[in-house]
# Entry
Amino acid sequence: MTMNEDAVRKAVNDARALLAELISSHWQEIHVVSSDTEIFIARRDASANPLLHPRQQEPTEADATGPELPIKAPHVATLVEALSIGAVVSAGQKVATLRVLDNHMDVVSPISGTVVRIDAEAGSLVQYDDPLLLLVQLT
Amino acid sequence: MAIKKLFVANRGEIALRIVRAAQSLNIETVVAVSDADRESAAARLADRAIVLGPAAAAKSYLDPRLVVHAAKESGCDGLHPGYGFLSERAILPRLCAEHGIAFVGPQADVIDALGDKLKARAMAGAAGVPLVPGSDCVASAADARVEGRRIGFPVLLKAAAGGGGRGMVIANNEDEAEAGFHRASAEAVAAFGDGTLFMERFVPEARHVEVQLMGDGHGQVLHFGERDCSVQRRYQKLIEEAPCAAMSDELRSRLHEAAVALAASVNYRNAGTAEFLFDVQRQEFYFIEVNARIQVEHPVSEMISGFDLVQEQIRIAGGAGLSIRQDDVRLSGHAIECRINAEDPARDFMPSPGTIARWEPPAGPGTRLDSHMSAGATIPPFYDSMVGKLIVHGTNRANAIDMLSDAIDRFVVEGVPTTLGLHRAIIAHPDFVANRIHTRWLEQVFLPDFGKQAA
# Structure
């Protein structure tokens, strides 16, 4: 850890206070950037967490298709199925199905994009933060 | 069926301890980790590590469905919950049973029953285990005098609906019982809207003793002697010893018999600990609760018995019976363990996560360290701050204290503050050396002075 305990404690307290604000408001998301911390809190269907998915550089001419966004496993699970390469999704649409014991759950895309790569095999055990597939944002 | 591949659903030193025990039995291991523990010692030693979820325990170690899914899909046929986290949640053995995994612990129904304080008390009573002497409802001040005399002063008047110390009064004689009745009843009405009171014997200087048990699930139960865990801060044990040097052999035998009888009465399976309050003045013990898991302090019992409790846990979960008989359990010498936390005693025991810069533990005959730390290892801020347990085994208590003192002196830790210095001061204190301690000694006697010295 590079943060000392006071900073960690302060960050946790700040995050709790912001969460309380978000819950009691109609806001969709809160994003605070200060000199030592950056906090992002959002409702389920709000935009993707910019801390997990750092802002991409301005697209260059060679990269005209827009920024890439890996979709990752939110926890350990078995990958039941995922969309195929070339599939086009809009924000909020299902891109993969996971299973934990007998429960199935959807993984939804936070952006509108095209599937350009599949990173996990259907039927395999995926761990937390493992990439499932790669999307390229529609520009 | 003996377990072939064991899933370790825990972290820290106990995860490492379980992996090592399994490897000694030639069992493959899979360790569950959170995102913060990817590089843990247990994860590196195990055959495989699976990242359950993010650092927050609620989304990783504390999610029984993720744990059992990972165990099943990684081909494990056994699961060890360690201590803390999900170890005493009946849902874990239930999910394991549904998915064909042997749970290294008691039956789900037994965990449920023991987790309910009133049920556990009733079970103890039915097995003939002494409970704290007390009364039913105390209806009047006159009743309070009579009941107090019968129970023996000092007594505690408690609100039946209560908790958190409200509606609770200590009475040292009949007059105080009468006055206390009116006060406690009024407080109970104000706090809970119900003035019903009951009385319990109050033990001002009690010790905490507990018996290490191991059952086969069919009524056979072994004990591995008792431990004395009276050095506590806020109900957290800091130092544990085996045996309890303040107890007569005659009382010790009765304590062991009571604990075994209780566990046998529920066909207890696997490791467990029956905890008691020990009234030293009266030389009596009273049941507190049963912890249905392996405990942090199990090494002191292993040291005096020379028996590996975690290996036996794994064998029993795999369907084997007890590997030894009570006659084979020979207890010798005296063992003391201190829990070393990355905390700063000078700053109200503030947890101090960080990176260990230097880690040079003592070694030698009779000295054991259960730890997942090493130079460069990180203590994440998300979990408890224990970095290890230092255990010594001497010929007697005085010898063990000398050994522990020497071991602490040789222990070099840099990078984070630890409680090693606190332990050195505790075991050097005349009260500890003379064994005049009780469960509130640390907070009432030791820490106030220690605080002054630190300041």
Notes: Residues 55-64 of chain A have pLDDT under 50 and may be disordered. Chain A touches chain B at residues 1, 4-5, 8, 74-78, 100-101, 103, 125, 127-130 (CB under 8 Å). The two ends of chain A are 38 Å apart (CA to CA).
